[in-house]
Recover the amino acids of this structure.
């Protein structure tokens, strides 16, 4: 579900305006839906955002301090940076949702002016980049366990940096048309009994081609959501099977010997498998929800307010995926755990030195 459509829908629900002439839309009582969304957007999501920003910043510091900058580390650094962008856009999104229900800090006109630029383009791009990077990470790890001797010739640090930069650039370019679907336009309104100028969302010339925009949205959703989510799920499953079959065969690979996963690669694989499985679990509910909407032939339109609840909960899982990687590194990798501990030890020593100087 695009944040643009979701924001417009949230505005309509908050203002008690019917979003559908069909009375079957309100499967769940409106007050219950509003209560659930307030719990999500006023309580759970802000906590996830703050925690995620701190933890991803620590991830970047940890990777910076690593001596070995492998292709895997390059993807993980890009993923941490992308997660920070996702969480920053989530701040703006949550402020907008809170303003709908609380009336502060954005007025309706200010929020409407933001919608075409922020929700239509800026908020969507980091999510899509994160999905593609996770897909790349999963593909790289599958190749590592299947072709451990040849994969290093293709997944070098240089080629990985180029791939990451191309992912950022191509995602920006491909997503650009969505920023031109709608515009905020001033018009006179006398809904309150007083004639005044208000902003309304109007489709541009491009946005008026509904068949094209719907088809384009479906293609982008398939490429940047369905393919990465289900692709990561498949590749992670295959990687897990190979790791299990490999078992405890942790001898060093030499020419003429069986190609098995080394002990170091085994630890890295387990860490990355945990990341990709977490990605799948967190992204799957939202992907299934969007698939149901598309199957019902109503792209980017809710058919009942059940989807409002499902998408709010899916958004929590989505942000959770951008928050937990630091914890996964600490729990699954001794190398990363030691590096994380060294960061806090260095920070403690620096504070102690400053304290001694002050005294």
């Amino acid at each position: 579900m695009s944040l643009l459509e979701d924001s417009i829908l949230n505005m309509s629900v908050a203002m008690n305006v019917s979003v559908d002439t069909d009375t079957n839309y309100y499967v769940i009582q409106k007050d219950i839906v509003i209560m659930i969304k307030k719990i999500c957007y006023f309580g759970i999501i802000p906590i996830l955002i703050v925690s995620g920003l701190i933890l991803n910043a620590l991830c970047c510091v940890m990777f910076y301090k690593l001596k070995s900058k492998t292709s895997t580390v390059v993807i993980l650094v890009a993923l941490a940076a992308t997660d920070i962008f996702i969480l920053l856009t989530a701040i703006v999104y949550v402020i907008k949702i809170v303003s709908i229900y609380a009336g502060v800090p954005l007025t309706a006109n200010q929020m409407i002016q933001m919608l075409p630029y922020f929700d239509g383009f800026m908020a969507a791009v980091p999510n899509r980049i994160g999905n593609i990077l996770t897909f790349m990470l999963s593909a790289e790890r599958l190749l590592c366990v299947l072709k451990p001797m040849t994969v290093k010739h293709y997944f070098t640090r240089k080629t990985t940096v180029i791939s990451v930069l191309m992912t950022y650039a191509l995602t920006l370019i491909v997503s650009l048309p969505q920023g031109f679907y709608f515009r905020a336009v001033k018009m006179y309104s006398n809904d309150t009994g007083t004639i005044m100028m208000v902003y309304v969302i109007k489709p541009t010339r491009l946005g008026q081609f509904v068949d094209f925009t719907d088809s384009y949205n479906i293609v982008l959703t398939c490429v940047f959501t369905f393919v990465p989510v289900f692709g990561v799920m498949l590749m992670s499953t295959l990687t897990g099977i190979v790791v299990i079959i490999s078992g405890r065969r942790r001898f060093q690979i030499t020419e003429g010997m069986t190609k098995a996963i080394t002990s170091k690669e085994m630890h890295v694989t387990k860490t990355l498998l945990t990341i990709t499985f977490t990605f799948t679990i967190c992204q799957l509910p939202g992907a299934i929800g969007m698939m149901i909407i598309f199957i019902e032939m109503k792209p980017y339109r809710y058919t009942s307010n059940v989807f409002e609840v499902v998408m709010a909960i899916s958004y929590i899982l989505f942000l959770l995926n951008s928050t937990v990687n630091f914890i996964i590194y600490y729990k699954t990798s001794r190398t990363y755990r030691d590096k994380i501990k060294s960061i806090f030890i260095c920070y403690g020593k620096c504070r102690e030195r400053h304290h001694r100087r002050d005294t």
User: Anything to note?
Assistant: Strands lie at 182-189, 196-203. Confidence is low (pLDDT under 50) at residues 1-5, 7-21, 250-261. The longest strand covers residues 182-189.
